[in-house]
Amino acid sequence: MLVLGVESSCDETGVALYDSTRGLLAHALYSQIAMHNDYGGVVPELASRDHIRRVLPLTRQILAESGCSLADLDGIAYTQGPGLAGALLVGAGMARALAYALDIPAVGVHHLEGHMLSPLISDKPPEFPFVALLVSGGHTQLMLVEGVGRYTLLGETLDDAAGEAFDKTAQLLGLGYPGGPALSKLAASGDASRFTLPRPMLHSGDFDFSFSGLKTAVLTLVKKAGVVAAPDIAAAFQDAAVDVLVTKSLAACKHSHARRLVVAGGVGANTQLRERLTREAAARGIAVFYPRMEFCTDNGAMIAFAGAQRMAHAAPELTFAVKPRWDLATLEAV
Ligand code: KG4
Ligand code: ZN
What we know:
Layout: E1 2-7, E2 12-19, E3 23-31, H1 33-37, H2 44-66, E4 75-81, H3 85-102, E5 106-110, H4 111-117, E6 130-135, E7 140-147, E8 150-156, H5 162-172, H6 179-187, H7 212-225, H8 230-256, E9 260-264, H9 271-282, E10 287-289, H10 301-310
Parallel strand pairs: 1-4, 4-5, 6-9, 9-10
Antiparallel strand pairs: 1-2, 2-3, 6-7, 7-8
Helix pairs in contact: 2-3, 4-10, 5-6, 5-7, 5-8, 6-8, 7-8, 8-9
């Protein structure tokens, strides 16, 4: 089954072709980061308009690259939510219209399910069950995953998401948007032991997170030490955030008797997080699975893949609605 995937929930237009027997055939991405950088964050209306400009040329590009034609498609998957309403509508409208014209099914995919299943786009995918650490710009969750759509929430952030904490800290240090990659690059030249920042909820005994206190501690530190100490502050922040993410993820694995841990979402691209998790998990006999680096952040491949898992159950519909807010634990099992 050949599935076209379309991602347009935020500031990246992603498209991909995934074949359930041949695997990923092609994918393409257009990032709007440069456009939003001038504003210090994503401007929703500009994002929607840019998705409109990019989605069809990118789709033509991957069809040409893979030697496929529209007639070869068996279904179309698009991000239905959560995300920016206007941005979601671009991908949903395009996918639904094209599917109707081609008389094939279209299926709306949960963006976080896309992220969570992205490590399965691999020659050696992890088997179910596994614990998933979802760390994106908008979400931080620990999930027990027993199959596609069989998700139990173990814990989540009570305030800021991990990526949001990276972005806000980067902003306080005068770095651009998105802050995660810039902050971790700066941290590499810093001394993490010069300052100690709090590890919120490290010993709370549950799997919930809180990152807003850490951000406030950074603000106080920046005022005291000045931006000249930015590399050391960045290193101390990264140390604290990674410490909490690693400790809670391993505790969730222990609690669920899971031998496999999957990490997904933009913060999953963080090198220090990857190094520490892999090392500390291995010491406990737990294998850690990551998406390909390029599939940590938003992309069309994860939507095409998740869509392919759900396509057999897709009901032909003429009307559709996007879901800017959507709870992952409410999805139906397939
Ligand atoms: O999953 P994603 O692309 O978009 C959402 O669905 O939110 O995640 C974007 C987030 C941003 O907050 C960005 O700063 C963060 O992932 N991020 C990183 C790194 N690369 C991206 N955070 C820490 N270290 C990185 N290397
Ligand atoms: Zn995302």
